[in-house]
Design brief:
The protein has 360 residues and is an alpha/beta fold. It is built from eleven helices and 16 strands. It has helices at residues 11-24, 35-40, 43-50, 62-70, 86-94, 104-113, 139-148, 171-183, 195-200, 331-337, 342-347, and strands at 6-10, 29-33, 56-59, 77-79, 97-101, 121-124, 155-158, 190-191, 208-209, 235-247, 265-270, 287-290, 293-298, 306-309, 321-325, 355-358. The strands form two sheets. It has an eight-stranded parallel beta sheet. A hairpin with a 7-residue loop joins strand 13 and strand 14. The model has no long low-confidence stretch (mean pLDDT 96). Bound molecules: pyridoxal-5'-phosphate. Pyridoxal-5'-phosphate is lined by residues 33, 35, 80, 160, 194-195, 210-213, 220.
């Protein structure tokens, strides 16, 4: 017997979500965001499943890129934060990585390094996200200096949207206007769109789109779930009921005793907790799925276990599968109830959770 907890990754769902990207952005190349271990889905299997069906893979740092190259991934890989020092730059060039240039220091490094291979560069322009990126006024000077480094060097003009997930936000319109004014007259492919912009703003698609969360089947918007956007959940996190307790009216459940049974009822114990990455702050009422019915979490989440109200599932028995999110239970519902977003739920699953793959 082993612990019943597992995350099952459906690689056919991943490919279906990529087809969805292609359907909504038919003219753009796809740079798939697979940073942070492919949002917790396992970077190597995800990269292999995407294979040559994407034009590029985006990661946060050199370590993530090298892991992919070391396992034989040959498609273009982009370092979203660029290189931190010259040694990284030399290694990035040697392993045929594309790099973001987001500041003066990174451009100077590139000018001094005299690399043999012309690493493709994504010049990141700050249009209002105010995280990484050169100021718009510097763009044409950077563009010229990059061009001077070699005629065959590709420079993608890129920016990142701060509020694309809010369909009403005027920030996106301002950022787009800023980007278009900044790059007017500068040659080269353009890239703006994350998942939200891919789904909601065709005017951002340009030459390269950068889908992340939608590839994993979750909605980037607060007002919809993945299936509403034509997406298929890739991860199903499940465990099992390991105990059922008959409680009396008024009994308190778990640490702190802040949830009390309103009547005599059955309470189920599920083998998953915050030690596995389930959010400790998930409120009472957060749904889990047992026998295709939703049962609400009650009491505090502990390290290895959580407790659920079984009143809606009278036939529930020890050993029953419990889905925490995924198939038939949107991760967005759990995220909302835990005061977070699907991205974080995916990323913070711990190494304790065995991951298996299907349709590879
Ligand atoms: C992570 C990331 C993306 C993907 O964002 P999603 O909201 O997951 O689609 C796109 N661009 C950049 C620069 C990123 O860091």
């Amino acid at each position: 017997m082993s612990r019943p907890l597992r995350a099952e990754i459906d690689l056919e769902a991943l490919r279906a979500n990529l087809r969805r990207v292609r359907h909504v952005a038919p003219y753009a190349r796809v740079m798939a965001a697979i940073k942070a271990n492919a949002y917790g889905h396992g970077v190597v299997p995800v990269a292999q499943a995407l294979g040559h069906d994407v034009e590029g893979l985006a990661v946060a740092c050199l370590e993530e890129a090298l892991e992919l190259r070391d396992t034989g991934v040959v498609v273009p890989i982009l370092l979203l934060e660029g290189c931190l020092d010259v040694a990284e730059l030399v290694e990035a060039a040697r392993r045929d990585l594309s790099i973001v240039v987001h500041c003066e220091d990174q451009l100077c490094m590139l000018e001094k390094a005299r690399l043999e291979h012309p690493t493709p560069v994504w010049l990141k322009i700050n249009t209002g996200m105010n995280r990484l990126g050169i100021e718009p006024g510097m763009a044409s000077a950077f563009h010229a200096r990059l061009a001077a480094l070699g005629a065959d060097r590709v420079t993608v003009l890129a920016t990142h949207l701060a509020e694309a997930d809010d369909r009403e936000a005027t920030t996106t319109i301002r950022q787009l206007r800023c980007f278009d004014e900044t790059i007017a007259g500068l040659g080269g492919p353009q890239s703006i769109a994350n998942s939200a912009a891919i789904l909601d703003r065709p005017d951002t698609h340009r030459d390269w789109v950068r889908p992340g969360i939608m590839l994993y089947g979750a909605s980037p918007f607060a007002d919809s779930v993945g299936v509403d956007e034509g997406l298929v959940p890739v991860m199903t996190l499940s465990s099992a009921l390991i105990a059922i307790r008959d409680c009396c009216a008024g009994e308190a459940i778990g640490y702190g005793g802040d949830w009390r049974c309103p009547e005599a009822m059955r309470v189920g114990v599920v083998a998953i907790g915050y030690g596995d990455g389930y959010p400790r702050h998930a409120r009472s009422g957060t749904p889990v799925l047992i026998r295709n019915r939703r049962a609400p979490l009650v009491g505090r989440v502990s390290m290895d276990m959580l407790t659920v109200d079984l009143r809606e599932v009278p036939d529930a028995a020890v050993g029953d599968e419990v889905v925490l999110w995924g198939r038939d239970l949107p991760v967005e519902a759990v995220a909302e109830s835990a005061g977070t977003i699907s991205y974080e739920l995916f990323c913070r699953l711990t190494r304790r959770v065995p991951v298996s793959y299907r349709n590879g």
